[in-house]
Amino acid sequence: MAGIELRGLTKVYPGGVKALDSLDLAIPDGEFFALLGPSGCGKTTLLRTIAGLETATGGAVVIGDRDVTGVQPGGRDVAMVFQDYALFPHMDVTDNIAYPLRIKKVAKGARRDKAAEVGARLGLEQLMDRRPGQLSGGQQQRVALARVMATQAQAFLFDEPLSNLDARLRLEARTFLKKLQRELGVTTVFVTHDQAEALAMADRMAVMEAGHIRQIGTPAEVFQRPANTFVAGFIGSTPMNLLDGVVRGDTLEVAGCKVAVPASAEGRLSDGEKIVYGVRPEYLAYSPEPGGGALGGKVAIVENLGASHLVTLDVNDVTVQAVVPEGSEPEIGDDGYATPRRDRALVYRDGELV
Amino acid sequence: MTRFVLGRIGFYTLIAVLLAFFTIPLLWLVTAPFTSDPTYEVKVPDFTLDNFRAVAEHPYALPSLYNSLVLSVGTAVLVVILAALAAYALSRVRLPGRDALLYALLLLSSIITGTAAMVPLFQLAVELNLIDSQLGLILILTGGLLPAAIFMLKDFMDSTPKSYEESARVFGATPLQIVRHVVVPLVRPGLATVGVWAVANVWGNFLMPYLLLSDVEKQPAAVITYTLYTEGGQANLSMLSTFGLLYSVPVVLMYLFVSKKYGFRFHGGIKR
């Protein structure tokens, strides 16, 4: 097992596209780390550069204590699960799992034993003689994981490990992956474009945009205190309300309403300053009665989320969304008031958290 | 209604004539060898095996079939190995002007074994001391078939996803191991197709061996067929038909075998 460290890692594609721009990142030994970002942000390039499938233009990749920047993929002692799993279609499950050992010239008997052992651990006993074409998506994923486990590599790299599964299976696989990583304790980096997946599985995560890391932190930190408006807008299954506002003495004027200065920004704002006020729909208390420091408006849309409702308010032509628990949802056209939680609301100045 | 019926009758008559055009020579080929005195007609044979005995006694007939086998299999093996390596490289490595190179090769290849290049090829073979040598002939035939083979195989290689190879690479496989363990099994139907195509091409080639091999003991069946005359200078129909049948059987068998095994589907990619 080993940690992974990136120092000033830069990747420029021929043609001048800068996929990674001087990234620094330290992933300690045993961590389950997520690279999250919209498509084209460079997250897959970063993973492939760690694996050695892409060569870095500048900077260094360090795995354990070893600088592997110039080392071929096979010499880095990492193992990778590809988005399409890349199981060899002409080999059965046993041979697929044993393939890394075949490359390491392990004797055939020992190879088969190891494959059987790892396969059994992932519940593949009945499938060892099948070809990948005869397996379901979830089974293929487990074979790909078994193959990676058989390598006993220092670190695992997963490229969009869940994106090929259907929605229900994805939830199961999420839990399964997290449990497996915890048991194995191997440093694991995975790439995803799904913020819910990253929040659910990762110990820590990096949110990327256009070749830059915009925030590194635990899922709780990233969810509660997004470092900038990009992360704030990207994280959360219902997007954060980001409202333009102006500082007026010791209150904020947002969408024509007066709200209190959030606890995190107290004493750091100057009068008359233009800011962006951020609050998650989950941190807005909805009430049909007016109250001090509330964003008041008319209910425009009510969306059913199952155990709660997402209410869209039209506050002086500004859209504000609030999550309302089931049973107390309003009707369209009602007057509604949403009071932000002072300890959860945030203020952004020039796109960065205050 | 009558128009329709007449139209149908006309249509089927046309089909029947076309079919007969192709069937009658084949029927002749399977009946004439078993007839004691074959002519150009197709008639019910009297099931004699004398013709086969005559072919077996001919000093060059059966050895020439062996020569054909050596030439065609030798060429096919060379073509498949070289074309697979070249196609893999061309498919995976980005070269400026790669496609232009491929098309130029393809165009020029029809010249290499074509009539236009006969004289220079002959002179080249003489200079290299490869005249009257089966190896020389194999090399020249391989050169002629390679461009088209590379073109076909590159298509197969292009349609196999890169992630298989990358996966093997991360596990530490060397480029040759990747080709052996991953690429070759994935494009096996393509290799079989190219192999069969090469064998069939060489098996039926008359001009190249006729010009480059002067020793009758080295000549393949296609050239020997040309020498089967009676003492009077007439085509020896009993020998020709019998030898023709023996000459065509191996190719038909090969097609049946490979078609059964690989189905000759140009699918390239893999069900996933």
Keyphrases for this structure?
heterodimer; A: 354 residues; alpha+beta; six-stranded mixed sheet; six-stranded antiparallel sheet; 24% helix; 35% strand; B: 272 residues; mainly alpha; 12 helices; 71% helix; disordered C terminus
Distance between the termini of chain A: 38 Å
Helix content of chain B: over 70%
Low-confidence stretches of chain B: 266-272
Topology, number of strands of chain A: 21
Query: In angstroms, what is the radius of gyration of chain B?
Result: 23 Å
Which of globular, elongated, flat, extended, rod-shaped describes the shape of chain A? elongated
Please describe the biggest sheet of chain B, giving its number of strands, its sense, and whether it closes into a barrel. Answer: none
Sequence of secondary-structure elements of chain A? EEEHEEEHHHEHEHEEHHEEEEEEEEEEE
Largest sheet of chain A: 6 strands, mixed
Oligomer designation:
heterodimer
First CA to last CA of chain B: what distance? 52 Å
Strand arrangement in the largest pleated sheet of chain A: 6-7-8-3-9-10
The helix tally of chain A amounts to: 8
Coarse shape of chain B: globular
Pair with the biggest interface: A-B, 26 and 21 residues
Q: Approximately how much beta-strand content do the residues of chain B carry?
A: under 5%
Mean pLDDT of chain A: 87
Alpha-beta content class of chain A? alpha+beta
Percent of residues in helices of chain A: 10-25%
